[in-house]
Amino acid sequence: MTDPTPRAEKLSRELDSAFRNRADLYRLLLDELTAEMGAEKAEAVMIRTIEKRGREVAAAAFTDFGPNDAPAIGEAFLAVSPDDGRMYPTHVERGPDRIAFKVKRCPLKDAWIEAGVGDEKLATLCRIAGAFDRGLFEATGVRFANVTWTPGHGSGCCHIALTNRDAT
Description:
By secondary structure, the chain is of the alpha+beta class. The chain is 56% helix and 12% strand. The protein has 5 helices and 4 strands, in the order H-H-H-E-E-H-H-E-E. The protein has a 4-stranded antiparallel sheet, covered by helices on one side. Helix 1 packs antiparallel against helix 2 (39-61), helix 1 (5-37) crosses helix 4 and helix 2 runs parallel beside helix 5 (119-138). It is globular and about 45 Å long. The model has no long low-confidence stretch (mean pLDDT 94).
C-alpha cells in the first residue's frame, strides 16, 4: 500500500496556497475598489459581500443549530477547521453557554504581511476578512463578538466569542 503522507503534505501545501490566493484577491480588490470609489466605500462593499458569503455558508453548515447552541456551533466550526486545525491554530476557551477562540495564525494575514502590506491596511484587511465570521455566526442567532487584528494586538489574529442568545 502506498504511504498517504506525501499526498497529505502536498494537499496541505495546496490548501495553504489557496487561502493565500484568497488573501491576494482581497488585497487586490481592496486596491481597485479604493481607486474607484474611495477607501470607506471600498471597505463597506467588501464587508457587505464577504459577510453575505458567511451567511450563505451558515445556511448550509449550521441548519441544525439555534441561538442557544453557541458551544455546539463552536465545536462544529472547529471540527471542520482546514487541515485539522493546523491552518488556523486556536486557543479555545469553553464554558456551559459560550465558546471563544483566539486564533494564533491566519494564512490570510501571513500573505498580507509577506506582500508588504503596512499596519493600517493590514488592520483594514483583517476587518474585511472578519466579516465572513460575523455573517457565519450571526446567522445562527448566537451572540457574536470579534476583535480583529490591529497594531499592538500582538502576533496572533482575531479573537472570536460565541455566547448563547439567552445567556445572562
